[in-house]
Amino acid sequence: MNHVALGLCFFVLASAIPLGSVTSRAEIEYYVAAYAAHYQLPLGFVRALIAQESGWRPCALSKKGAAGLMQLMPETRRLLHVDDACDVRQNLSAGMRYLAYLREKFQGDLRLVAAAYFAGEAAVSRRGLEYSNHDVVAYVAAIGRKMAVQRAARSGRLQPGRLP
Question: Lowest-confidence range among 72-81, 116-125, 128-137?
């Protein structure tokens, strides 16, 4: 391959990865912890939500158009001024601003916050914990299980291959 073609390939590859982009799990974890602290959100809750929503994939995209680590819906991205849902910092900042808003709206009840994040705040506002949609109930339970696993792992009670 000649030097011009090699240079062109390098330019294309380099321009596809924005300078300063967050790529490693350790970097993502750093920003998750920083934004959670800034918005005064429980880190375990945020980590569980990200695991449930995107499996920690920075550019995950759902069939409904939700994108990024926190699976922000197009309308939420627009309202929170997210230009690039795959930009980890934009996605986390907007997602946690939204979680902080929901936490305030639902007086700190993380079950309702998780339900509203999944199903929309209007539906959860109407029904509260009486919300009986199976998908919402399963989602909230999954977040709770993920948080319990994290707590057990931190306390040293989690044995390899066993859930609490």
Answer: 128-137
